[in-house]
Amino acid sequence: MKEAVDQIRSRLKEQNIDVPEEEISARLGMLIEKFRVPEGEARRSVLNYFLKEHGVVPTARSSTEKVKISEITSAGRWVDLEAKVLDLWEPANDSISQTGLIGDGSGSIKFVKWTRAGLPNLEAGKSYLLKNVVTDEYNGRFSVKLNRTSRIEPLETEVEAQAAGAGFQPTKELKVVEIEEPGRWIDLRVKVVQLWDSSSDSISQAGLIGDETGSIKFVKWARAELPDLAEGKSYLLNNVATDEFQGRFSVKLNRTSHIQELEEDIEVGSQSVEFSGALVDIQKGSGLIKRCPTCKRSLSKGICGEHGKVEGTYDLRIKAVLDDGRRVQDILLNRETTEHLVDMTLEEAKQMAMEALDHEIVRSSIENKLLGRYFSVKGPRVDRYILVEAIEEMAPIAEGDVDDIMHAVEAI
């Protein structure tokens, strides 16, 4: 960040404009950290903002030239490309209209189309002339950005493109613990620890995978048209892309990925965290639920987002919130842990729901047993959840301790 701020100040001083470093840093930080705008784009935006603020028209760039993808070797260059859309990915935020992979005969490269550009959508498998796009670079990997000055022209002839991923470094088989940067194409030998409910129609499956070094979140895009993963089974996942959000890494399976089931049973190591506090909420989706027999995601009114209306299988779980007085933590308990904690088996829960003609009675019973009690939990943290592997009840905080805590909070 400091280097980028210094570069912007230097460019402004060339125009006899002196802007305090903190003003540049604040605007640049807002774009990068709050709105997650790539650094190159944010840097140009901040520079142009202060130039216009002081009545200076940004220097017109030279005319673009048509290049091959393999010829993109520097950032901040304006070029034209004839390319085929190899893959489309889920945008990371609302400021991005589309993102994915484009390619030509020389290789492939990531593209980003900004929402504010107001450009028409690209279609997977179609070929286009992309005019006036700007090159960018992050962690040694180049990309192109389409903004308001860019133009998209469909081509009648198909661009011959290399297979997706050809423009990136070759994939390398890694352990989960070795994933240290986003935007890398890798192979993993992992076991499916848990499958979660999908948060979007664009997601086919999501959950937790792991090896002996730890566990990590995965997302399989619906448009990838890959076979479903099954809980408890082990796989070789080829050509998956690493991603990062708020300091947590994940992997994405898309059209370029491959799934191979393994006969071996991979042992999954645990990178556990601990949290203690009062149980203050039992969330919707707790208690007696039904899951799709194929993909294991929970059903909504008997319907699976992937497989439609199915005859579900019953399961028991708890999605709850712990509060330690300073922060809250979502926790997720599987059937075995839930049965032990509330002293209720799955069969007893089914019987209770049958007699009451209402599944919600199971969640109400769990609430009555657990709300207000104090627990210490341990397990891997994935997204906002701790996946509880061990839970122990604690003695409630004494009244005098509460007073001390409140006095400390007031002092702060």
Name of the CATH first level of the largest domain:
Mainly Beta
**SS summary, helix count:** 7
Share of β-strand residues? 35-45%
Structural class: alpha+beta
Written overview of the protein:
- This protein has four domains: 2-53; 65-154, Beta Barrel (OB fold (Dihydrolipoamide Acetyltransferase, E2P)), CATH 2.40.50; 172-261, Beta Barrel (OB fold (Dihydrolipoamide Acetyltransferase, E2P)); 273-399, Nucleic acid-binding proteins (OB fold (Dihydrolipoamide Acetyltransferase, E2P)), CATH 2.40.50.140.
- Helices cover 20% and strands 39% of the residues.
- The protein has helices spanning 2-13, 21-34, 39-53, 335-342, 346-356, 360-370, 399-411, and strands at 65-66, 78-89, 96-104, 107-114, 127-138, 141-146, 151-154, 172-174, 185-195, 203-211, 214-221, 234-245, 248-253, 258-261, 272-282, 287-291, 303-304, 308-309, 313-323, 328-333, 374-382, 385-387, 390-394.
- Strands 2-3-4-6-5 form a five-stranded mixed barrel. Strands 9-10-11-13-12 form a five-stranded mixed barrel. It has a five-stranded mixed β-barrel with strand order 15-19-20-22-21.
- A hairpin with a 2-residue loop joins strand 3 (96-104) and strand 4.
- Helix 1 crosses helix 2 (21-34), helix 1 packs parallel to helix 3 (39-53) and helix 2 packs across helix 3.
- The longest helix has 15 residues, at 39-53.
- The protein starts with a helix and ends with a helix.
Key phrases:
OB fold (Dihydrolipoamide Acetyltransferase, E2P), single chain, 4 domains, 412 residues, five-stranded mixed beta barrel, 20% helix
